[in-house]
Amino acid sequence: MIHPLRQHIEEIISLTDEEFDFVLSHFEQIKKRKYQYIVQEGEFVNKEYWIIKGCLKSYFIDDSGKEHILQFGMENWWITDYEAFVKQVKSKTSIDCIEDSELLYITFENREKLTAQMHKMERFWAKKSKIGRIALQNRVLSLLKNSAREQYNLLLEQYPQLLQRVPKKMIAAYLGVSRETLSRLNS
């Protein structure tokens, strides 16, 4: 059976068995339980995570104590605080597990070494980065131009499985609406 990370990478680039073994040697696998953090606001971030199994959320808490969810992450998604990871500064966000999760992570140092030694992986991450920027741009545009109902319907259309896995209060925090408003959108 093909390793799920290899399958994921080979959606963009092809790898020989030896190349994949080399890539995989730069990663570590961990398991986290529901509610455990992988990134906490104010900490230095040295890892980028690939989700084998589970669901996570990236968020921040504003000065009034309100949670704002920036991103969810599910199987085959990458997640970290990218500004903190790339710039090697303290995180502005937190990431924790909504479900028990299995993750692979690569450290900043190992990612730098891997991309320097294997240009295929440099191309892979460049493409993933572009895809991520497009998703972020679409999210910002949706927040700016769509009504709450349109945003909810778009979320339903794009990620129907997410609504089965994530509590409604988190969906509301992602959409920037109250739970009451979300209940009205849901009816």
Write the layout of secondary structure elements.
Layout: H1 4-9, H2 17-24, E1 27-32, E2 37-39, E3 47-53, E4 56-61, E5 67-73, E6 78-79, H3 82-87, E7 94-97, E8 101-107, H4 108-117, H5 119-145, H6 148-158, H7 162-165, H8 168-175, H9 179-186
Antiparallel strand pairs: 1-8, 2-7, 3-6, 3-8, 4-5, 4-7
Helix pairs in contact: 4-5, 8-9
Structure characterization notes:
The chain has a domain at 4-120: Jelly Rolls (Sandwich). The longest helix is centred in the last third of the chain and has 27 residues, at 119-145. It has 9 helices and 8 strands. The model has no long low-confidence stretch (mean pLDDT 93). By secondary structure, the protein is α+β, with helices and mostly antiparallel strands. Strand 4 and strand 5 (67-73) form a beta hairpin. The N and C termini lie far apart (43 Å). The strands form 2 sheets. A 4-stranded antiparallel β-sheet has the order 1-8-3-6. Strands 2-7-4-5 form a 4-stranded antiparallel β-sheet. It has helices at residues 4-9, 17-24, 82-87, 108-117, 119-145, 148-158, 162-165, 168-175, 179-186; strands spanning 27-32, 37-39, 47-53, 56-61, 67-73, 78-79, 94-97, 101-107.
